[in-house]
Amino acid sequence: MTYREITTVLRQAGIDTPEWDAALLIGHFCFVNRTSATAAPDRDYPSSALEKAVRVRADRFPLQYLLGEWQFYRQTYEVTPDCLIPRADTEILVERAIRVLPENAFFADLCTGSGCIAVSTLCERPDTSALAIDLSQAALDVAARNAKRNGVSERLEFACANVLSENAEWALSRPRPSAILSNPPYVRSGEIDALSPEVGHEPRMALDGGNDGLVFYRSLLRLARKWLAPNGVCLFEIGCDQADDLRKLAAENGFSCAILRDYGGNDRVAELRRANEEPPA
């Protein structure tokens, strides 16, 4: 297949970025860089693996899973259908964590998935250590490989546990973290099927936040009341229409709540602190 043919197939399938996808697929399966692929649009690439990948992508299977890896922040991550695909919007949370974590901090990353939040934060803050939690052992296996790939395995502990658990023994038996970071499931159950076809291939358990999208935030705040260290901070990714809900939940649990926006101008991260504690200067 040629770059031009692949682009046409993907465009007809409704792919928003057919040129970008075509170049990345050619690069991955035929070891040709993007510039070369686009400069010779009629060059034929006789690869059965490429042809199969184009067919699968045209069925709206995520590009990231076909490539098997994706860039996030300054690192490269293995991605599989066992975990949510890392997205650029989440980098706002990592940037804030890097900035506000105290020296030599221990932090927790709940619903870690691919491990991108914990691993990127650890990479940029070599003085810190962390605990990563997920209910999916398959996702934790991916996260562990990503930690090793990016050189932070010795500072990252993993545990398979349910963050919705009422007793949270898995947490309370460990040191109190200076920060609780999380990109939890926050899509309303009734809205998941209306998302893009690609999202339908991602693990539903990493998306489904219950009927109102807030189930995990309630549990995270309940846990934070007991476990977060004094003067600690919670950084939670949120849906673009959930800022008011998070402010209300924060107040009900004795936390203040500031909202950070992503690069698209959408509400994206809730920064929570106990109401009687001041953020660092």
Low-confidence sequence ranges: none
Strand content: 15-25%
CATH-scheme architecture of the largest domain: 3-Layer(aba) Sandwich
Tell me the span between the first and last alpha carbons: 57 Å
**Whole-angstrom Rg:** 20 Å
The number of strands is 9
Please give the order of strands in the largest beta sheet.
5-4-3-6-7-9-8
How many domains, in number, for the residues?
2
Structural class: alpha/beta
The CATH topology of the largest domain turns out to be Rossmann fold
Write the element-wise H/E pattern from the N-terminal end onward: HHHHHEEHEHEHEHEHEHEE
Query: Could you give a short account of the major beta sheet?
Result: 7 strands, mixed
Contiguous helical run count? 11
* Mean pLDDT over all positions: 94
- Principal-axis shape equals elongated
> Under the CATH scheme, which class of the largest domain?
Alpha Beta
The CATH superfamily of the largest domain is identified as Vaccinia Virus protein VP39
Textual characterization of the structure:
With 281 residues, this protein is α/β, with parallel strands linked by helices. The chain has 2 domains: 3-59; 73-274, Vaccinia Virus protein VP39 (Rossmann fold), CATH 3.40.50.150. It is 37% helix and 17% strand. The protein has 11 helices and 9 strands. It has a 7-stranded mixed beta sheet with strand order 5-4-3-6-7-9-8, sandwiched between helices. The chain is elongated.
